[in-house]
Amino acid sequence: MMYDADAGGAPVIRVRDLGKVIGAKAILSNISVDVEPGSIVGLLGKNGAGKTSLLDVLLGFSPPSSGSCRVFGEDSFHLPAAAKRRIGFVPQQDELLDSLTGAQQLALNAALHTAWDEPLIARLVREWEVPLDRRIQVLSGGERQKIATLLAIGHQPDLLVLDEPASSLDPVARRQFLRELLDIAESPTRTVLFSTHIVSDLERVAGQVWIVRDGRLVWAGELDTLKESVARVTLVAHADLPSHLGLEGLVSQRTDGRCVQLVLTGWHDERQRELADRWGAEVTVERLSLEEIFLELHS
Amino acid sequence: MKGVLKTGLQFYIRTRAQRWLLVVAVLSFAAELLATRRVCCSRSFAVGLLAGLAGGTATMTAVYSAWNFRLISALRTVSLIPHSRLQLAGGMLFAQLIAAAAGAVVVMLVGPDAPLPSLAWGSPRGSFEMLFGCALSCAVLLQVITGPSRIVSVVSLTLVGAVGLRADLFMKPEILGMPKAHVLALAGIILWVTFTAWYVRAWRLAGPYAAWSRARERVAGQIRVSREAAIESFLVGQPSLRRVCRQQVLTWMIYHLAMIAMMVGMKLLIVRHNFPVNYSAGTMILLYGPVVGVNVVAGCLARGSRRLWLRSGEARSALYTIAARLAWQSLALIGVPLFGLAALEIRFLPHADFDMLFPLAICVSLTPSALYLGLLNFRRRLNLSFLALYLLAAGSLLAGLLVESAQGRHLLWMAPPALLAIGCGLRTLARRRWYGIDWLEFRAERETLPFAVRRG
User: Fold this and answer.
1) Residue A61: per-residue pLDDT
2) In this structure, are B151 and B192 located in the same domain?
3) Which residue among A11, A99, A157, B71 is least enclosed by CB atoms within 10 Å?
4) Minimal CA–CA distance to B7: which of B132, B93, B77?
5) In chain A, positions 56-115, which contact chain B (CB-CB < 8 Å)?
């Protein structure tokens, strides 16, 4: 079920047995995953699941307590300047300077980078209607988020990491933003990793999905594969069914006498016949949306 | 009423730190009482230290409670329910009543055995009224003039605690004399009533700077654009370090002038007019300024470092070097004018009956410790600033004790080198911490702005 971390060429991000403990609490455990160049990865999880912590460790803000994490082949905690130049990051809580205007903020950021795509920024400012002449402190949450995003993409990073980038945007701005995200990711070498609560955004953009629960990666792989491999199965038998069916990949089970509703991972069509033969039951299979899968995985 | 009483108590026991501070204050006070009776000499060095510890912790508990009120007072839920606002304001009044009552009891227990002068301080009622008036005024002013998002932050108001520790300077009748106690109490109550009337009725809470900020919004200043300027701005969190330091100098000069105005006002109000002129309280503010100011600026640099980890490409060690250089620059920019002015005042203006050059030496040697404590402060929390205040308080206390105690005079020479040695120790600690800093532990805290101003 897990994404095959050892397949393919040189990954942009390579994580092995990553763990992070703060105080006595393990906030990340046993995470192994790779991100290939050109992929768009959506990171999904409840509040406090460990999404932001995972991104912080990936980007070197925090050292792992165990395991390893490499970005562009470099240890993330000691990223050299050359690797950092290839990364753009939009944090969950923006780090803008309140007393500057948006234009000043962009100018200062441009001064830190050797390659700054002024035409791209000018176009996005126009399309997103970003007020650059006003102080940051008086801007709305959405306007601030747009500027934070511009700061992250102006130097055309190879790896763009966004921590809940669209949470403060209105529906129109969110749609524009997602379209832009797709444009940015069009380049075969550019990789995008973003965390979100909004499942529909993820479905619209991401090719791969990571689902984090209680600091563990419960799914990392292709979005389509996830959708195909998770199914809600209803068994209606002639006699009462046991409370524990002992099935592989069982996510949840609701038993009501002769009727059992199961959510299973690793689903394939042969399993339908196996279940019918084993329990002498009528089996119906229902495919789930990503939102339903997410809810089932967290039930 | 029950809610008001509960709220008032909560201001002192809400956090674990506050509860510990209270325990330390009570234990130190009890120890001081015992020591005073055994030694039979109120000016003993050990007794003085215990008194300082008790006073220091009690003052910090009070400042902490005022800080708590600031945080709670701006919560959205509170701002939507006028009744809870009234409860909070009532709780604040009750909290100051508790503080004043406790202070009055302390004054009665450890006060002078000699007959009281014809001034209010020292008598039970007078002490209570005076403490109540001062505490209430400070608590209200704290709500009105500070804002955590600004560099002129509540940390500057550690001054309240620091001045509180040197209250004896103000209380000596031969130095300043005192206004009538009930005048102070009345002033505090009028301030509280005015504040509460506004706080309970305000439809939308906005800070006193709101109108000024709106006016300034249109005229954004020019900034330098270069790699160095960008690194400096992102670290400081403001357009430039010079601007931040200018704000600090300006703030402390305002405090200084306010103190002088207050002294003049007190002189007009006092019962006796025939005491010598003394400017030491005003000069003390100038001495505290660089210590607290550089701590605040260095704290901003530490918190800003996360912004630059990816943007600048610099390693943690390089970021530390830049931050430390900027912190020392800020020390020069704040310290030279304030310490310079203090030195001039010490040279040319009349002062108390002790040598003010010694507090100057103490405060100058305290600045490196305050600087490196600031660089260790990656969180916008009070803990480390409280430590800075402790250092400052310890320095003041030591200065007073060493000068006034006969046995302490022999130890005078040790104080500045000892403080510099502490600074060196903190420098080593700061370097080690920066080299392995885990920013995940110090994520930007979501602030609840007191008098939050949100303009779309």
Assistant:
1) 93
2) yes
3) B71
4) B93
5) 56-57, 59-63, 78, 80-82, 84-85, 87, 89, 91, 93, 95, 97-101, 104, 107-112
